[in-house]
Design brief:
By secondary structure, the protein is of the alpha/beta class. The protein has 2 domains: 208 residues, Alpha-Beta Complex (Spore Coat Polysaccharide Biosynthesis Protein SpsA, Chain A), CATH 3.90.550; 87 residues, no CATH class. 40% of the residues lie in helices and 19% in strands. It has 12 helices and 10 strands. The strands form 2 sheets. The protein has a 5-stranded mixed sheet with strand order 3-2-1-4-8, with helices on both faces. Strand 6 and strand 7 form a beta hairpin. Helix 9 packs antiparallel against helix 10. The radius of gyration is 19 Å and the shape is globular. It starts with a strand and ends in a 9-residue tail after the last strand.
């Protein structure tokens, strides 16, 4: 029997931490799903297989492939998926218990060209959790401007996409970072309609700077992306990319260039004064100092963790 949803989890050397992620999928109140764990050439593939086997749940299966990165692993999962609607989850993140049930209800007013996403709780290792994004895209707001100019975010672990749409617009397997925005921008160019569920349905564990593709050093790959895919961006989105993505990664090597990118985006009104100040702090403060600053803000204004249900009892 074909499941309602396929959940795809790429995994590389995460057997020791993937347990809570898998448990969050297994605990879904809507049970009509399959979960495909794509082992991207891990060294700990035997341990991963044992973790999945210990679930004693036929809905969960492992597919092993040679190492190719997160995009290639997700594409492998898409090709193997049996459901029409495909969700994604990173191996260190979690679903909240009623996530798939909320998505199933939302699909009643969607067609195959709709891309669903939701807000997400952000766990920074504090008693409080942050919520991202703060709002959905506005009716006349381009997705590039939403993401790159106005502080929006569409996390992979919140996406639900129809297999026909993913057949036309797959993940770019050549990218080692910026995979999520790249997919979203190409989906938008293909004509996809984005609809946000305005409640947090996932948990993004952002407790460390380590082992994140977005934390890779250097900037040449981002310059190459911009050269190859500037056609995905409006003029405002182009300034936004330079100010909110490239400046952050180029600041250490080329501080004057980074400052010019932020200043230029502000002068052309691609970003607000508040965003320009935020990106300046983010780009030029030492990473740990910036993290401490943001954690202080989350500690003051975040939502208390004990008010949130993470498991079905």
């Amino acid at each position: 029997m074909t499941p309602r949803f396929s959940v795809i989890i790429p995994c590389y050397n995460r057997a020791n931490i993937i347990g809570p992620c898998l448990a969050s999928v297994q605990a879904q109140s809507l049970t009509d799903f399959e979960c495909i764990i794509v082992d991207d050439g891990s060294d700990d593939h035997v341990a991963l297989a044992q973790v999945v086997l210990a679930l004693n749940d036929p809905r969960f299966r492992v597919i092993r492939r040679e190492n190719g990165g997160g995009g290639a692993a997700r594409n492998t999962g898409i090709a193997a998926a049996r459901a029409d609607w495909i969700a994604f989850l990173d191996s260190d993140d979690e679903f909240l218990p009623h996530k798939l049930a909320h998505y199933a209800e939302a699909l009643n007013t969607c067609d195959t060209n709709t891309v669903l996403f939701s807000q997400s709780y952000v766990n920074r290792g504090l008693p409080q959790l942050w919520i991202r994004p703060k709002r959905a895209p506005l009716p006349n707001e381009g997705i590039d401007e939403y993401l790159l100019c106005n502080g929006g975010v569409i996390l992979t672990s919140t996406l639900l996409i129809h297999r026909e749409l993913l057949g036309a617009v797959n993940f770019d397997p050549t990218l080692r970072r910026f995979q999520d925005p790249d997919l979203v921008l190409r989906l938008a160019k293909h004509g996809a309609v984005f609809k946000m569920i305005g409640t947090p349905l996932s948990l993004w564990n952002d407790t460390t700077e380590q082992d994140r593709a977005s934390r890779l050093k250097g900037y040449h790959d981002l310059e190459n992306w911009l050269q190859a895919k500037a056609w995905l961006l409006s003029s405002r989105g182009l300034h936004g990319f330079r100010a909110t993505v490239l400046a952050y990664n180029i600041a250490h090597a080329k501080p004057f260039s980074a400052f010019w990118m932020i200043w230029s985006a502000w002068m052309t009104r691609a970003i607000s004064t508040r965003m320009a100040m935020h990106q300046t702090l983010r780009s030029f403060l030492p990473r740990q100092a910036y993290r401490k600053l943001i954690n202080s803000f989350v500690g003051m204004f975040g939502k208390q963790r004990h008010h949130i249900e993470f498991r079905i009892h």
